[in-house]
């Protein structure tokens, strides 16, 4: 792994290294401060959003698989939504009449790839390339209880993950599903699943990849969780160079 990272770093141009450094700084801030503070920062400094996602795209160029593409394929082909392990990613067979919430959507690639489906995409700012994105604090979404059939967090559980998952539980319908892709270094998969289930979800799919893991859940009955939310994710904190 160390050799791979070194190889990726040496391939970057000077301008790309600057973008990567800005991304690391912003990423650390997003992981370590309350969601409301991040929302305020991005509203006061609109250029931060573009800088962050430009750096993010640069980071993912070395990945063999982007979780957004994984989720997009599942939405387009739910009957064939199987990964290399042949486990089912979703229990739903059709998304045509369902509402999907993409929380922390970035440039809203997921909605763009599935323009025939009903989406609400949320993030800290509206990107120029996706004017339909709604600005929102992920711990307090502008949506009624039960408004969503699927909630997706694709590498976006930052700041206050326990509150974000509790909010997803609130906005999901009784038959709703939660799909999460998370950086593997933040939490081992089994520990992560246990934390999400403490909110009240039941895991029916999990798979570990090199850079991230994916887990999918159905919504349990109200009060089914442990009563003590156990979601603990290590923030991405970088060494100063």
UniProtKB/TrEMBL annotation:
Organism: Spironucleus salmonicida
Classification of source organism: Eukaryota, Metamonada, Diplomonadida, Hexamitidae, Hexamitinae
Record's protein name: Ribosomal RNA-processing protein 8
Family according to the record: Belongs to the methyltransferase superfamily. RRP8 family.
Enzyme Commission no: 2.1.1.-
Chief place of localization: nucleus
Assigned keywords, A-Z: Methyltransferase, Nucleus, rRNA processing, S-adenosyl-L-methionine, Transferase
Compartment(s) where it occurs, according to its Swiss-Prot or TrEMBL record: Nucleus, Nucleolus
Function per UniProt: Probable methyltransferase required to silence rDNA.
GO biological process, one term: rRNA processing
């Amino acid at each position: 792994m160390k050799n791979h990272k070194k190889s990726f770093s040496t391939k970057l141009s000077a301008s790309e290294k600057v973008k990567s450094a800005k991304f690391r700084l912003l990423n650390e801030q997003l992981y370590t401060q309350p969601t409301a503070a991040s929302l305020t920062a991005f509203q006061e400094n609109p250029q931060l959003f573009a800088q962050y996602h430009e750096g993010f795209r640069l980071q993912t160029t070395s990945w063999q698989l982007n979780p957004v593409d994984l989720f997009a394929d599942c939405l387009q082909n739910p009957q064939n939504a199987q990964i290399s392990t042949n486990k089912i990613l979703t229990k739903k067979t059709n998304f045509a009449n369902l509402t999907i919430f993409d929380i922390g959507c970035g440039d809203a690639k997921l909605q763009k790839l599935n323009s025939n489906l009903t989406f609400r995409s949320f993030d800290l700012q509206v990107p120029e390339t996706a004017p339909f994105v709604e600005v929102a604090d992920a711990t307090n979404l502008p949506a009624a209880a039960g408004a969503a059939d699927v909630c997706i967090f694709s590498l976006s559980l930052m700041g206050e993950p326990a509150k974000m998952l509790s909010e997803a539980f609130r906005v999901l319908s009784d038959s709703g599903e939660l799909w999460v892709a998370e950086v593997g270094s933040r939490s081992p998969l089994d520990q992560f699943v246990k934390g999400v289930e403490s909110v009240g979800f039941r895991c029916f799919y999990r798979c570990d990849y090199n850079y991230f893991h994916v887990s999918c859940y159905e919504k349990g009955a109200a009060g089914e969780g442990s009563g003590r939310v156990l979601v603990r994710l290590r923030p991405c904190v970088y060494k100063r160079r």
